[in-house]
Amino acid sequence: MILLITGASHTGKTLLSQRLLEKYGFPYLSIDHLKMGLIRSGYTSLTPEDDEQLTTYLWPIVREMVKTAIENGQHLIVEGCYIPSDWRKDFSEEYLEKIRLICLAMADEYIDAHFDKIRSYASAIEIRVDDSCCSIDSVKKDNADSIRRFSASGEEIVVIDDDYEMVIDGIVEKCGEMINCKLNKDDVTICGRSN
Asked: At what angle do helices 164-180 and 13-24 cross, to 10 degrees?
């Protein structure tokens, strides 16, 4: 099984990936690590601020890594904001039946009520070197954009609007059910597209 975990910045994609790794032993690829490796090595002139161009640059590499993992019968979690909302067009049905998408977003009300907590957890798993551009308005804009793009592509969004830990724990458990059910492709309540 391949889990693609995407969504807005500061929604806990890396935290969720880490929890899934710890609970189920699935390795995960942070697209941010790939991005920084390519930038630091000089293989691209793009910078960490070039989000749109980075998606175009990174996605073909990530897409082919996903296909390779599926062909080898390997489980993999891929997390990051560089997964395009129209990602499904790049996979045939035989690949799609082995991939689940989890798109995380936060409701404006949740951001308003918990912004200090959101900022305090920004480096819970990975250290953010410079998070100075993170404001309540930028987080709201990023979440609204993510919801708009993925909804327009027909994807379900896991909207965090109340108890963050309960939502994340629910996703971890739901993914466990999917693993134990041998990827029942009709079971996409939290992970994947509505039927």
From this structure: 40
